[in-house]
Amino acid sequence: MKMLNDRRGVSPVITTVIIVAVGITIAIAVALWMTGLVGAFMGYEKIEVRSAFASPASGGGWTIVINYINTGSSPAKIDNVFINNIPYDQWSDVECDPDIAGGDYAPANIGVEGTITLTLSDPCTYGDQNLVSGVTVTIKLHSTGGKEYFTSVVLP
Fold first, then answer.
1. pLDDT digits (tens, 9 = 90+) for 13-37
2. 23 and 62 in a common domain
């Protein structure tokens, strides 16, 4: 029986080419997978206040109407409204529609306009702060995503 002394394996060059090709294929697959995975988490909220105005309320006080729209790529919820950096429910005699303090969020769906209405009594106070006619009031909308959106109105 004749021994096979002339065995040859795969050339080192071909081995290197195969390893590099497999490595590149795996890298491309991982990159495509990560792009799809990151794309799923890249939604963002962007609420724009379209208009905000104050008008005298019947029976005294004021009504502040805030119109907004979410122009982002992810739905949002407004979970609090601040008047001069103080939660609205801490002020004396302020009502909000929808009742955010009662756990009802104001929805901010993509491309859909929303409205928040604040009704303030006269006088409206918090500690030593008083809201009276002619005062500029800063309104801050706080979302469940932790973002804040500002607008200002002058009480008539």
1. 888 999 999 999 999 988 888 777 6
2. no
Q: φ, ψ for residue 22 (rounded to 5)?
A: -65, -40
CA distance 36 to 137: 44
What radius of gyration, in Å, describes the C-alpha atoms of the chain? 30
For residue 4 the two structure tokens come to 């096979």
Are 148 and 81 in the same domain? yes
83-121: string of b/e by CB count within 10 Å (b at 16+)?
bbeebbeebeebebebebbeeeebebeeeeebebebbbb
Domain annotation covers residue 100? yes
DSSP conformational letter for 89: G
| Continuous segment of H or E residues that includes residue 13 | helix 12-41
| Span 44-71, pLDDT tens digits | 889 999 999 999 988 889 999 999 999 9
Beta strands of 3-111 (E only): which ranges? 47-56, 62-70, 76-83, 86-87, 94-97, 106-108
What pTM did the predictor assign? 0.72
Taking CA atoms, 81 is separated from 2, 87, 99, 136, in Å, by: 92, 6, 10, 16
